[in-house]
Amino acid sequence: MIRDDDLELLAKAKASGMLSDEAISEETLVAEDEEFVRLTLTERIQHVILFTSFFTLVLTGLPLVFSNAPFIHKLFFFPTSFWLRGIIHRIAGVTLIGVGIFQICYVMWSPHGNRDFRKIIPNPQDAKDSINLFLCNLGLREQRPRFGKFNFIEKFEYWALAWGTFIMALTGLMLWFQEASIALFPIWVLDIVRIVHGFEAILAFLAIIIWHMYNVHLNPEVFPMSRIWITGKISKEEMVEHHPLEYEEILKERRDKLEIERVKALLEEVRQKKSTEKNEE
Amino acid sequence: MRLARHAAVAAAVFIVALVSAPAFAATSEDCFACHDDPSLVNAQDVSLRVDPKAFKESVHGQKGIECVDCHAALSDVKDFPHDAPVAKVDCSTCHSQEAEDYKASIHGKGFAKNDPSVPVCSTCHGKHDIRPPEDPQSSVNPLNLVAVCIKCHADTKIVAEHHLPPLEKIKAYESSVHMKALREKGLTVSAACNDCHGAHKIMPPDDPDSTANRFNIPETCAKCHQGIYQTYIESVHGQDYLKKNKDVPICTDCHGEHSIKSHESPDSAVYATHIAEICSKCHEDESLGKRYGFAAKRLKTYLGTYHGIASKMGDIKVANCASCHGYHDIRPPNDPRSSVHPDNIPKTCGKCHPQAGKNFAIGKVHVSEARESSMGAFVVERFYTIFIVANISGFIIFIMVDLYARRRKAKTHKRQTASDLEKVSPDSPE
Q1: Are residues B312 and B383 in the same domain?
Q2: Domain assignment present for B414
């Protein structure tokens, strides 16, 4: 309950400059060498399982898409190799689906996951950002767009992956359990399913190889590799450079917290003073 | 020394002959009196010895044939040692049918032209030690026959001189299922050379009477594979074969000739993963396709399906041409007995896909991704092609622009630091 004299106190504190930006400098809030958590351990583990299963799927699947390439059939050099390819492909597929389901649970029920998930939902600002960044890169605009925790590139990758995984899992399962599919659908549906599975695979593979690889590996800034996927942390510098809005948010959070603490301390001090005065009387 | 011994032997024979033969005809025993001697040689120093044991165990010895029955020129000779050389044995005296056959054969024709390298009776059957073909020790027993034929047909000199089939073709038999059955399983019913080419009446395949002639091969194979033959002549291929069509595949066109292997052998021409290739030899042939009105692009449209891809990669369980169309019993799809007649499709597909119901009849098995025949597939493929190209171009453009911006930034940064340094430098005019 806020009493009148509390408000008075707050006003006093403000007037004395205790809560001003100068009084609480950035340095007090963030140490120069502080590192920020970008990916939690659970997220990093998910990422590792995701990319191992992804590349296993690519390796065991793409030979089928490019079956006309002259050297491809040489990959299957022992009699059971094609059968084994299928088994490995299915194991990796199940793993990927498993990660996908875990991710859904994670963003629904884990507080951290849920909070980040809300931040990765696309909004109109992302479209504006993408155009602005493009124009800025071309030198047609001065101000680079400022990003929060997830910029439009990361959001695009996330949703492309989610969509791709959904399509691949659905079509993959239909092809795997072909007996059930055959009972449910005419054969031309299965032909389309097979074509979709192949083309979506090419799309996913190219997207990862070109887009994601550039952003986290080949980009001169991080070359040869961004280490975030291992350490899960980014420096203050990177934070300010790439995620200024998130940084500002963190600063604001910390400032608010500190202000409240300071006011509380002041309040406590005043109360104590009053009670000693009373006692003296 | 040798002369003296010969004289002694001759004298002994003479005396024995005088004593023992009132109405004279030399018995085999008489002959062996001299011809059992290992040192007996002719003018060319070739041994004239005949092993009495081998002769007695031979079919002729067993049947009580005497030396002079075959060496007929000596039947009337009374003075021993007889004059040399003795006229050649004429087997046709007894084996007239075989002799007739031999005369008609390519070997017999060569013999008539005095070709020294053509085989005569003894080349294959032996001389004094001839055994019946059923005898495992006979040179013409199925277990041994191949070695007999190979003697000449693997002789590079003979092969070259007579333009015989190349060595590899002959040798291919050694890895065939027939040879395997003979050698490994000891199956004497398995085909050796003579079973397909004939024994005495061997003719080149281009001779219409040859058992290896195109129009006779199915019957030749039918000697053992009668059941298959009956199925085959009912099929679309067999029906045309009976009409003496030369384009239609016969046994050897799919299975191979000497190299014929079990369909379970990965080297077989009709191994599951090779079937598409074999059928395409004719069905992808443009002129044959036009002549007989084959459905076009069967191979391409098969290879575009999972069946085709998996088969190409070595999966033997997926459907190949034969899985659906049959092999010996292939019939045109409009034949109600055809496995690919629309009424039979669920059953045919059901062999692998038990759930295949009437849904299977909707849609095509040979998917072509062409607008006319498979609309859905065509649209999806077109959509994805455009979508992927657009996406990837987008990525690349974005990356290029990003790299361009970085480069520009690095340049201005450099210029900035350079001018900063200039300002700080004491040498500068300011």
Answers
A1: no
A2: yes
Alpha-helical runs (H) found in A139-243: 152-176, 178-184, 187-206, 213, 228-231, 236-242
- Helix orientation angle between A152-176 and A81-109, rounded to the nearest 10 degrees: 130
Q: Report CA A253 to chain centroid distance, whole Å.
A: 21
Q: What is the DSSP letter of B73?
A: G
Instruction: Provide the shortest C-alpha distance from residue A76 to chain B (in Å).
Output: 6
> Tell me, what amino acid is at A237?
E
Same domain for B350 and B317?
A: yes
- Same structural domain for residues B258 and B337? yes
For the stretch B382-407, pLDDT in tens is 999 999 999 999 999 999 998 888 88
Q: Which residue of B has its CA nearest to A180?
A: B355
- For chain A, what is the mean pLDDT? 87
Measured between CA atoms, how close is B383 to chain A, in angstroms?
10
Q: Do A188 and B377 touch (CB under 8 A)?
A: yes
Range of the domain at B173: 97-213
For residue B67, being part of any structural domain is answered with yes
Q: Residue A252: CA atoms inside 13 Å, Cβ hemisphere, count?
A: 6
Length of chain B in residues, anyone? 430
Shared-domain flag, residues B363 and B398 = no
What is the crossing angle of helices A187-206 and B375-424, to 10°? 10
CA-based Rg of chain A, rounded to a whole angstrom? 27
Backbone angles phi, psi at A150, to 5 degrees: -120, 120
Q: Please state the domain count of chain B.
A: 4
Task: Mention every residue, 6+ apart, whose C-beta is less than 8 A from residue B152.
Answer: B117, B119, B123, B158
C-alpha span between A83 and A66 (Å, rounded): 18
pLDDT tens digits along B322-370: 999 999 999 998 899 999 888 888 888 888 888 766 666 666 677 665 5
Q: Which two tokens stand for residue B379?
A: 């649209």
Rg (CA), chain B: 39
Q: How far apart are CA B241 and CA B236, in angstroms?
A: 9
CA distance A214 to A208: 9
Question: Angle CA(B217)–CA(B221)–CA(B226) in degrees, nearest 5?
Answer: 130
Of A175, A186, A214, the CB nearest to B362: A186
- On whether residue B118 sits in a domain, the answer given is yes
* CB-side neighbour CA atoms (13 Å) of B221: 23
Name the token pair of A52: 């191992």
Helix runs in B127-186, H state only:
142-153, 156-162, 167-171, 177-183
Same domain, B131 and B47: no
